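Hey, can you fold this one?
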Amino acid sequence: MRPLAAALLVVALGTGACSKDEYVAPPPARTSDAADPAAAAQTLAALQDAISAGDTSAAADLGADARSRDLLAAVVTNAGALGLTDVTLRYVTETGRTTGADGWDGQVAVTWRVDGHDAASARTELPVSFAGHGASIAAIGGTGARLPLWLSGPLTVERAGDVLVSVAGDPARAPAYLAAARRAVTQVRAVVPGQAGLVVEVPADPDGLQRTLDTAPGQYSAIAAVTAPVDGSQAAGSPVHVFLNRSVYDDLDPVAAQVVMTHEAVHALTDAVGARQAPLWLVEGFADYVALRDVDLPLTKTAGQVATEVRKDGTPKTLPPDSEFDPTASHLGGVYEAAWLVCVTLADHAGERALVDLYEQVRDGGELAAALREHAGWTEAELTAAWQERLRSLPGVAG
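Sure. Predicted structure:
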């Protein structure tokens, strides 16, 4: 799936009372006696140094209690296993939340990059709970803030070649995730050549997925996986990874699980997240085209839901609109099958290479109508008519 979220950077400029000849900087904001921003900044700098040096003991020493000491040691271990680089931790401001006489939360800007995979650093801000007036760290993350998986607790990291998988919670299925991801890359590259590798992140449970992506409760509860910018940004070059919802993914049979992994790998490896102008029937339908290309399944399996809908409601009048791809919709399976059949119709008519060229042209900002004419010799109305005919010929619909 392709979550569409906008990131807004607001820069506030303030001036203090002064004459035209002099400037007096206003005192730094301070909302509680517990807060000491300078001490917090020093603590963050020490943690950043520990991460850079791979020093788990130095990181653990910055924890306020046993739980936070274990967390900070895990953060260092995670960073090393993932091959993180460009890691920075910068104190920004207080949040206004305090705990006891010397505990308080500060907003912290974090950057990081998976070396060899991410072309640019991810950037986010999150709350960090300080203790001892800022001399130690009690917790990382909070309600309403994105919590990168590597900062959430211990991870199991598996890698092979240009594929990396990081797993929170039970690590038993980590090798299976890695195998599926490797096969997914092979399947995608058989259709769309390229060089970039794949990173798959697996939170421990749906709540962990919600925190990692900073989504509304239940937004992806029925979704097996989602491809998204690591930091939620739509900025060009922002790292994009695949995130699994293991509560759904782990219950899939091996064939279905591979289809899901390959579908998401198409999004990640073809920069689909940045294809803001492309219709979702093309983005999602192409991903399913690649994922199902070498799968030997009957149409009763791959198009059974849309066949049922056509039999009940008749043939759709238009290609699937973007509004129907809501991840919480009850008919989502049929919508994806319908989008897949649009791409199958195009490939059968003009060839797979034409479908790939059309996808890439529209993904990169080209107009759909022009791409259809150039690569398929069709108008959108002609494509729609051919797709409708294919829907009417599905098992359980025809006759």
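The radius of gyration is 24 Å. Let me know if you want another pass with a different chain boundary.
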